[in-house]
Amino acid sequence: MEDNPEVGAFATGALHDLGHDVVLARNAAEALAQLDREHDTFDFVFSDVMMPGMNGIELAREIRRRRPSLPVVLTSGYSEILSREGAGEFTLLRKPYSIDSLSAAFPAPRNDTE
Fold it and tell me: What is the DSSP string of 44-86?
C-alpha cells in the first residue's frame, strides 16, 4: 500500500523484477478489499506507514487480526508515528529503500516448476 505514485511505481516495479506478482493499493480500504476478494492470493503485504485515513500500522494490525499468518512489512521515512505507535511486532524497512533491501525483505518466490 502506497499513496505516492512515484514510490508506488518504484516498489511495484522492483518487486516485479524480483519475481513477485504485485497488486498496488492506494489506501487501507482498497488494500483490505483486495485481501478479502483474493484471500489466498497474497504471500505478504508491504505498506507505507504514513497514509491518509488508516495508517500502515493500523492496517497491519487489522491484517494480523484477519489473517494472522500473512507477513506484513512496513516502510517509512518518518519517525513521528513510529515513535508514537511503534512498529515493534512488524518488520520495518526504512525509506529510502533499495532493490537490495527489498530483495532481503522479500526473497524471490519459489518456482514450483523446477
Answer: -EEEESS-SSS-HHHHHHHHHHH-TTS-EEEEES--HHHHHH-
What's the whole-model pTM score? 0.86
| Geometric angle at alpha carbon 90, from 84 and 96, rounded to 5° | 80
Q: How far is CA 4 from CA 8, 9, 26, 92, in A?
A: 6, 9, 8, 18
Measured in residues, the chain has a length of 114
- Residue range 57-113, pLDDT digits in tens: 899 999 999 999 999 999 988 766 665 566 678 888 888 999 999 999 988 786 654
